[in-house]
Amino acid sequence: MSDSDFINPVQHNQDEVLFDSGGTCDCYRLVKDNRVYCVKRPKKDMRSSEVYMSLFRKEFELGIELEHPNIVRYFAYDEDENGPYIRMDYIDGDSLEAFVAQHPDYFKEKGHRKQFCDELFSALSYLHDKKMLHLDLKPSNILITNKGHHVKLIDLGFGWSESYLHDVGFTREYCAPEQQFAKTESFGPATDIYALGKILQRFGLAKNSITQCCLKEDPRARYQSVDALRKAMQRSETIRISSRVGLGLVAAMLIGAVVWLVGFREKPLPPRPPAPEGAINGLFTINEAGDQVYFSKGNLQYKPSINTWRFAENQFDYIGGDNANHGSAEKCVNWLDLFAWGASGRDHGAICYQPWCSRNVYEDEAWQYSAYGVDTLNLFDGDGQADWGYNAISNGGNEENVWRTLTIEEWDYILEKRTTATGIRFAKAAVDGVWGLLLLPDDWDSTYCSLRKYNDDDVDYTPNNLTEPFWTKKAEAQGAVFLPAAGIRDFGYVGLVGKYGLYWSSSCLDPKEALGIYFSNSFFYHSITTDKCSGRSVRLVRDKE
Q1: Which of 212-226, 246-260, 483-497 shows the lowest mean pLDDT across its residues?
Q2: Are 125 and 189 in contact (CB under 8 A)?
Q3: Pair (145, 213) in one structural domain
């Protein structure tokens, strides 16, 4: 739609133009019943365009449904001798771009950055919760009020809702790739998050690693919700503050003469209760009720030639290099640990069984999943649950229904909300030269293993280098879990084995999309949507009895 802006209120007649956008609309100041409004009216040459006028009407119909303090309010759509117009709130302020030009140092203060981001995120999250997309987020569509410097989001002309799904428009500088190429099937909250990342980047409101995640070409690789983006920024700020506060503590610890190259105090580990067969002996709380799970001792693997499932022999083991020709079953001669989402039904009648490369993933029958061979428990829709634990594990008890896959809510609790003895939930790490994600159990004692850059999604793998002897005798023995960056294998990501890690959850969204966690050398986030037929890793858990 337009780039219309508003200026400070002065005495104007109703018909005097406040601001000429030079584009599609004029905005007027209107005093009615002792209240000031803004009247937005299409320019004369735009009134003959059916396409534009449908967008103009749509803006009102979307806006009238909204009531949020950081979104401009819409009151009426009407028509007079000068054509149709929209009556809405008058905003006493300027566009974001104009505001920053007048106050160049404004965002240098943390409190100002926080207020702006909190209010903009709240507005956008509200839209998404209402099943709407803005699709034209840019500085000229974000107003800052003169009083209080509050955010007001405007211009819903290109917006989408369940009632409007066919109009495609954008501002090239801020639009996501899927908008430029009209890939409407890929539109979602991540499309708005791309534009939001551009704004955060332009005005220096977030760390580069966070904005780069917003700006991933593949929408599935971006933050999948405004809330996920907000949490990433909060973690980033918490780590920054903790690092400053912790300098004195670090100095005190160094007095103990424990240097990083050793990384461990030479004292015996306390005794731990035995873990079930095939499990690591650390316990992880998965919900507010306090339920706990054990992790399997390695990634789930399968060998087609002998029809056998197992856990990897070491936590840092992963297979993926020998099935590079993933379209050919003959190449899958070794153990596999990159699976499609429907692999749980291999021995129980599922139509589509796919440890990677067992069939062409784009054949029609590839979508005909069924859970455990029962047609009514299908994996085709959003109610499906993938659970690889339905298969017997050769070195993990050889029992069915003992192991299962974490839900995305359980992943979220382990990584974001869980309380541990030392406050450490996870860290990037390299174990025996293998990159991955290190998960620490609830009772983790940091005196046995010093860690750098923990609970930080932006850090790379290298700060925490653990040799195999240290890992086995200390960290793993104390219950640590290591998720190797086993790889991502589909037609777009061949060759990323060992650099990126993506692990399935049991949750899915729709017929073709499931959820998982995703990490690399520069980011980590969860609740990512991904193609069900793509090869991803699986790590199983066992509930504490």
Answers
A1: 246-260
A2: no
A3: yes
